Each structure stands twice: as C-alpha cells, then as structure tokens.
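Support case: 6-O-phosphono-beta-D-glucopyranose complex. Customer-provided input:
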Amino acid sequence: MLTKGFPNDFMWGGAVAAHQIEGAYNVDGKGLSIADVMTGGSNSKAREITEGILPGHYYPNHEAIDFYHRYKEDIKLFKELGLKAFRTSINWTRIFPNGDKKEPNEEGLAFYDQLFDELLANNIEPIITLSHFEIPYHLYQEYGGFRNKKLIDFFTHYAETVMRRYRNKVKYWMTFNEINNQADGQHDLHTWTNSAVLCKDEENKEEVITQASLYELIASAKVVKLGKEINPDFQIGCMMAYVPVYPYGSHPADMMASVKVMERRFLYSDIHVRGEIPAYALAAWKEKGFNIEYTEADLQVLKEGTVDYIGFSYYMSAAVTTQPNIKGDPIPDFPEAKMVRNPHVKASDWGWQIDPIGLRYVLNTVYQRYNIPLFIVENGFGAYDKQDENGKVVDDYRIEYLTKHIEQMQLAVVEDGVDLIGYTPWGVIDIISFGTGEMEKRYGFIYVDKDNQGNGTLARSKKKSFGWYQRVIESNGTELSNRDE
Ligand code: BG6
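Agent response - structure generated as follows:
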C-alpha cells in the first residue's frame, strides 16, 4: 500500500482510438480512412497498405470490436470499473467523409453527441484526440496527405466543426496522436498513419516527412488558438510518443548519441510547447540541405498556438551506442550510432523493452524541459491472453506491469513534484492493435471474444485485472496489491 496518493482530481481512465474500436467503417455516411486500407498483420508479418479496399484481404479495422453499436454496454462496464476519464478519438471520416468538403456529415456528428452524452451521464470525462491515424483516404489520393499545405485548412475546418459542436461536452483535446512517431520518415507505417504520406525510394524520406510534420504542427497551433476562442476553458494538448533512448554505456560518445537521437523525439514537443523551431533543427536542416517551406505568418501561428499540456504514451525504453563491438540496428543518417538491446530490462513478446523506471525518467525530463502539466494518455502491456476453463483471463503479468509503472508515477508526483493530471492506460478494453492489426495483442481489462482472423462472438468479459484496476481507482492509486478474487 502506497502511503501517499495522487491529487484528488487525478483522472484515472482508459484509452482507445476510434479506428481501433468502432468498426462500422462504412455506415451512416462515413468515408474511408487511411486505417481502412490497412490489412491484418502479425508479430512477424507487417500490415499492408493497399490501394483502396481489395478483395481477398482482411481489414481488421472494418469491424474492430463494433463499439459503434455497443458503446452503451461498454460504457456500463467502464462505469463499473470506476473510470473517471475515457480517451478516444473522433474519426475524421465520420464528420468529413472525404475531408475536403465544407458541409459535415450530420450522422457522424450525431454519433459523437450520443457517445459523449453517455459518457457524461456516467460521470466519465471524454478526452478527445482529433487525429489518431484516421485521415480521410481521399486526402491521400487527391492531395498526397500532409505533403500538401492545403491539409492545414482541411484539418482546421474539421477541428473547428467538432470543437464548436461539442464545446459544452468536451474540455480536454489533443491534436495529432504520437506526432513524433514519423520523425525519421523511414517507416511507411508511421508516415502513413501520422500524415497519410508514402515516400518513394528515390525521395529523401526524412526531408519529405519533416515538411509534412511542420504542416501538421502549424495546423495544430491554428487549432489550439481557434479552440481557445471557441471555449476559453478548453484544455488543448499535444500527443507525443516518448521512448527514452539511454546511452548504452558511459562512453561520452554514447551519451552524445543519446542526446542527438532524443532530439528527434523532442523536436515536435519543442515546437508544440515553445512555439518556435529549435536551433538544433534549423542547424540540422541546413546541414542536410533540406528545403523546408514555411512563412513568417506560419512562425507567428506556431507562437500563438502553444499547448496547455502534454499528453504522451509511454510503453518502453531503448538504448543507443557508438561502440563497434556491439551488435544493433542502424539508424538512418546517423551512421556512427546504432540502436541496441538494453541488457538490464526484459522485453514483451513483441520485443518492447519493459522499463517502469523509464517512466519516472520521462516524467522528470519532460517536466523539467517544459514545466507544463503532463498527462499519461497511453501505457500498457500487450500480451497473448488465454482464457482458463472458466473463461477467465488471469493476467497477473499485466497487473505486474501496470503496478510497477504506477509506483514510478507516484514517485514522480510525490517525490519529484511533477504536475501529472491523469493516467489513461491503453486499450482499456481489447481492441485491434495498431502496429500489427492483430486482435490477439491484448491490453485490456475487458476481454473481447475475437481472434486474429476476425472470428468470435465479440462478447465482453472481465479479466482479473478488471478488479485490480477498480481498487486502484477507488483508492486513488494507493492500493496496488494483486489479490485473488
Ligand atoms: C500507440 C498508438 O502507438 O501505441 C496506439 O497510439 C497503439 O494507437 C498503441 O495501439 C499500442 O501499439 P500496438 O501496436 O501494440 O497496438
């Protein structure tokens, strides 16, 4: 039992994203999103991005867990779990099916009205991401995604529409989910889901994605400014993936490599929070001969649209070295360094390195860097859950993972003075994995009967961790013990 708790208004919650949970991909006027053309993959097989929907392929997000039709039943369970906050996204393509028209789709707007009403009636605060890998597919086909500056206006119009509509229902917003995932431009999965951009081999991918990212950052700043005009009580944040990259050893060159690799992760929050392009980025662009377009007016927008808080995901840490005798994965455009396994931490079945102390480290470094409130909007343990003979999932490994992370969170709040406003672990209910498209990479406290091929009844049942998280919330994070029910 921890003796000191979290602030009384601490937002204990759970997080998901529309495309991973809702399904109903083509009903009530919804358009195709970039997630709707991603096939199912696995731990060893990457998801494919297809040209539209092709026959003979399985697209797991089309049905997901059918939250669109079952949200009332699910919110009942969230209420029983004791959630004070629920993070999800608005699927842009429900509101603007193509993304570039003026008039919104009323049926899409009405769905989120009902969803938010249901949450509020159950005293659950909606925490809303505006863009969580759900850019309209049409904006890729017609404009090449965020390569095109016009997307700033399309995104702003969409955001303005929903912020006006839900101005009395939603207070906490975030603009682009894990915007810094795409940083080096080398992974199609990330450039696609963050920006609806696919790079050709002959292109300088980092340059392309730096430009697209800057357009997104400008769009985000515009929306922050506009949101404050719509409702001054809005709290509008950014959303970052923070994976701390430690120096593998104490060699000074390893330490410097860690600083340089971390710049990539910090660049986005540096702009979101400080409202200007940092010197290290300007120097790197010049050095690399990048031609990044922006105007004086854009720089002014960045200044005027700084965020109120930083939402971020934390799942794992990583390590970097410059030492020649250690094997690792090369880092594009940084040939003297490579990413290596950290021998001091274990990894999940998907190779994600489990490091609870890394969370305290992130909370400290980020808070010291920016001095604004932080919100952990994703954290969790993806695992293959098995139901026992009574149909129960005994997920002690998940309880252990979360307990250790909450303990570190508590230290950061109580001993380090970090201003942390909430914690919404990822996949409060089992959903489709973003990275692999699997259903069987599960994070939830609530089990959903469905497999990787899409078979199952979609029935919901409580895992052992459900009772555990219920006690955590009830005790405001002081009661973390794992009891047999
Ligand atoms: C984050 C995303 O990258 O991590 C989520 O914001 C995602 O959308 C989560 O689901 C976990 O990743 P995965 O690949 O295990 O689903």
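The domain at 2-474 is CATH 3.20.20.80 (TIM Barrel).

Case will auto-close in a few days if no follow-up is received.
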